[in-house]
Design goal:
It contains five helices and eight strands. With 178 residues, it is an alpha+beta fold. The chain has one domain. A six-stranded antiparallel sheet has the order 3-4-5-8-7-6. Strands 1-2 form a two-stranded antiparallel ribbon. Helix 3 crosses helix 5. It is elongated and about 80 Å long. Bound molecules: zinc ion (2 copies). One zinc ion binds next to loops.
């Protein structure tokens, strides 16, 4: 499996560099070991060699996930709706600190439908436990992000629909009571 840990394994002979931000060593939010700097293409990914989780900076996430907008047809999205199995359990406990600012991060289902729980600092980036980034990448490549937009639109339409229905009902009532 092409995960980030194996990637580092392949580069074992290269010099390890401890990840730092603002002059502070970045620690793994889960095991508190210093993170080491790795790369995918030219993008920095900070890795914990103990738990194999990774830290992805806020601006790098889109590039790393190779997000292409509006490249999915309605057909593909309805396939996604039928076939996609959300991943993992919804862990909700155990808030952990951001490796950069050390504030507690919030836990989030990545993109609402992926089922991949990640820890997120809205200012600095996202922590992915081992294997989760690959799951998110799969979700995105199958059209997850486009599917979310479709769901938002559908929800909006449903709400508009029920609002219109209520208004017609009350108008109807008022006309009857005249
Ligand atoms: Zn760790
Ligand atoms: Zn932070």
């Amino acid at each position: 499996m092409n995960n980030f840990y194996n990637l580092v394994d392949a580069q074992k002979k290269t010099v390890r560099r401890v990840a730092q931000r603002k002059g502070q060593t970045m620690l793994c939010p889960k095991c508190r070991k210093p993170l080491v700097v790795t790369f995918e293409r030219d993008i920095v990914v900070d890795l914990c060699e103990q738990c194999h989780g990774i830290w992805v900076g806020r601006v790098d996430e889109k590039r790393l996930l190779n997000v292409k907008v509006e490249s999915f047809s309605m057909d593909e999205l309805s396939q996604f709706r039928k076939a996609y199995q959300p991943w993992g359990r919804m862990e909700t406990s155990g808030y952990v600190p951001c490796p950069v600012c050390r504030e507690l991060m919030y836990r989030k289902n990545w993109g609402s439908y992926s089922g991949v729980m990640v820890d997120k600092c809205s200012e600095h980036g996202t922590w992915y436990d081992e294997g989760k980034f690959e799951k998110v990448r799969e979700y995105v490549s199958l059209g997850g992000i486009e599917y979310e937009k479709l769901r938002v639109m559908e929800k909006g339409l449903e709400e508009l629909d029920s609002r219109l229905y209520k208004e017609v009902k009350s108008l109807d009532g008022r006309l009857r009571n005249r």
